[in-house]
Design a protein that fits this description.
globular; 10 helices; alpha/beta; about 300 residues
């Protein structure tokens, strides 16, 4: 564990960068530029695909894949991001597990506010099932907003009468649209990426004026997790979203759901993106790979 590595990354994230733009187009371009600097592992191959009626990127190991599929949802506050911006995370999960992954290009706000993205994720899952994939061989995974989608897509799939996947892996998930977690106050100014004030514009774009206190926007507060698959929640202590994970873990425990809450000290939001330059990132991805390998049908 390197304090020097963590300090260097925090300093880099606090610098003014091209993400600090006024228009949505500039914000998207800046986010893409930042994420393009993350290391993508060798030994994977990518192919354009379609799930439902949405574009996806199929990520596979160079060797023949193991039986199992990860359906990955990228982060970006529901406004920015793409399968390409999450390739470090998706690629590392594929390289470490030997499973294939589909990374979904779901619709984004403000052009397509809530619940468009969730509808796309459910449609993608349905397409996998209709292709003959066994739900016991599918895991949902995602980071930040996509981590939240890994949970809300499960809720929406259950409501649609679909069988649930075998597992959920969520990196620094956003699970509370009311922003009521204590860490929104205690970690504001400590978190080098996110602030309560900074989340307001994208939140307004995504919520579209709807009440945030509903299960597909704030599952940590109102969702019934009974019957959910096992979950792995990974989060850093420096995040304003810390309590989104700690409260969901408590909610899962109360619902008799298997849950692993993996809290890493002194690391920023979606720290797993820094695999190859941050020891904690590589170790966390190894733990996520172990969890997936134990949960997906072989």
């Amino acid at each position: 564990m390197s304090k020097e590595q963590r300090a260097k990354i925090a300093e880099m994230l606090r610098r003014p960068n091209t993400m600090n733009q006024e228009s949505v187009e500039e914000f998207r371009a800046g986010f893409a530029e930042l994420m393009a600097s993350m290391l993508v592992p060798e030994g994977i191959r990518t192919t354009e695909a379609t799930l439902g009626d949405r574009r996806a990127v199929l990520v596979e190991p160079a060797a023949p894949p193991r039986a199992g599929t990860i359906l990955y949802f990228h982060g970006g506050s529901f406004v920015v991001g793409s399968p390409e911006t999450a390739m470090s995370l998706t690629g590392n999960l594929v390289a470490r597990t030997g499973f294939r992954a589909f990374s979904l290009d779901y619709r984004l706000a403000p052009e397509h506010p809530f619940p468009a993205g969730i509808e796309d994720c459910v449609a993608a899952y349905r397409a996998l099932l209709e292709s003959g994939e066994d739900p016991s061989a599918i895991a949902f995974a995602g980071d930040s907003a996509g981590g939240g989608l890994s949970v809300t897509t499960c809720l929406a799939a259950r409501a649609a009468g679909l069988p649930l996947p075998a597992a959920i892996v969520a990196f620094s998930p956003g699970l509370d649209a009311t922003r009521s977690g204590e860490s929104f106050e205690t970690k504001d100014g400590i978190d080098p990426i996110l602030t309560r004030e900074g989340l307001k514009p994208t939140g307004e774009m995504y919520f579209g004026g709807q009440d945030p206190l509903q299960e597909l926007l704030s599952p940590v507060l109102v969702a019934d997790l009974t019957g959910f698959p096992p979950m792995l929640l990974q989060v850093g202590t420096d995040e304003i979203l810390l309590d989104d994970s700690t409260r969901l873990a408590a909610r899962a425990r109360d619902a008799e759901v298997d849950v692993i809450l993996d809290v890493v000290a002194g690391v920023p939001h979606v720290f797993q993106s820094f695999a190859g330059v941050l020891d904690e990132a590589d170790e966390a991805l190894d733990r996520a790979a172990l969890f997936l390998g134990q949960r997906l049908k072989r």
